Amino acid sequence: RSSSRSVSVSRSSGGGTGRISGGFGSRSLHNLGASKRISMSGGYCSARPGYSYGSGHGGLAYRVGGAGFGFGRGYSPGGIQEVMVNQHLLVPLNLEIDPNMQRVRQEEKDQIKSLNNKFASFIDKVRFLEQQNKVLETKWSLLKDQKVVKNNLEPMFDAYISNMRRQLEALGGDRLRLSSELKAMQDAVEDFTIRYEEEINKRTTAENDFVLLKKDADAAYMNKVDLGTKVDALTDEINFLRALYEAELSQMQSQISDTSVVLSMDNNRNLDLNSIIAEVRAQYEDIANRSRAEAESWYQSKYEELQLTAGRHGDDLHNTKMEISEMNRMIQRLHSEIDSVKKQCASLQTAIADAEQRGEMAVKDARAKLAELEDALQK
């Protein structure tokens, strides 16, 4: 939308005619969905001699937002006419600046900045794509140049691929060999484990036998102590009986001597008391000797039997201790062998894993290079 105002003035006088017109214009005093324009135009022509017929003044117009006001009056030759004034034109114009103009300008600036940034990024992308295009063109030219030596490269790559395949087959053979060795080691470990369990069972049985033998040895020792106590008691009893026998014998001798005196006094018969005493003494001594011999023989037999039993148990105990120490040494040796076998198994498993990893990496590398070669050959 636009508004315009024009003022034109023409005058003529005397022996010539003249025309004066003037004008000025401005645009975009403020912009809020519409525009206003005020313009004046004019000009001046030099006077020329001629016929004078008068002067004239012609119209003034103003238009805002599609509506306009105007007035005009012409002066005819021969006199000054009355000027008519339109009162509506004397009303002050509302030429205030819109408060939203700054916000709109800021939005326009932001939009311009964003568009500039997008345009700069687009330019960068275009430059990058141009560089990529140049790189691709260079690669394409190099590949075109390499097509000449295509036939010379194929045997080399075929030899490399065959070498990789041989290495892969060798790694497969090593894997089978290591797998068989691992299986053999696992069987050996299982065998040693079974033997170790058997030795553990034997050790447990030997410990139980040792406990039983210890109980028997303790019982034999207690029997020995009891028999020693009984021997001491019998010895004391024999000594007591001997003392008693000697006391009775002395008492009997005293009685016999007294009786002999009495008999010698009262009776004149001659009695052989010495023989009687000797006979009784012999009988008592025989009884004491037999008792002593029986006690000594019984004690000696029991003592020898206890010694034999203790020696036998001692030998059994010594043999059991020797067997237990031998089993302990064997168990320690088996432990060390099992540890070494476990270490060997771990090292073999590590070697197998490394070989598998190297084989897989070699296969992947060979496949990647083969794919690259195929792509290069196809291109």
TrEMBL record:
Provenance organism: Haliaeetus albicilla
Family statement drawn from the similarity comment of this UniProt entry: Belongs to the intermediate filament family.
UniProt-listed InterPro entries: IF_rod_dom, Keratin_2_head, Keratin_II
Coiled-coil spans in chain: 105-132, 317-376
Single GO BP term: intermediate filament organization
Protein name: Keratin, type II cytoskeletal 75
Bias-annotated ranges (Gly residues): 13-23
GO cellular component labels: extracellular space; keratin filament
GO terms for MF: structural constituent of skin epidermis
One Pfam family linked to the record: Keratin_2_head
Coiled coil found in the keyword field: yes
Keywords, sorted A to Z: Coiled coil, Intermediate filament
Domain IF rod: from-to ranges: 108-379
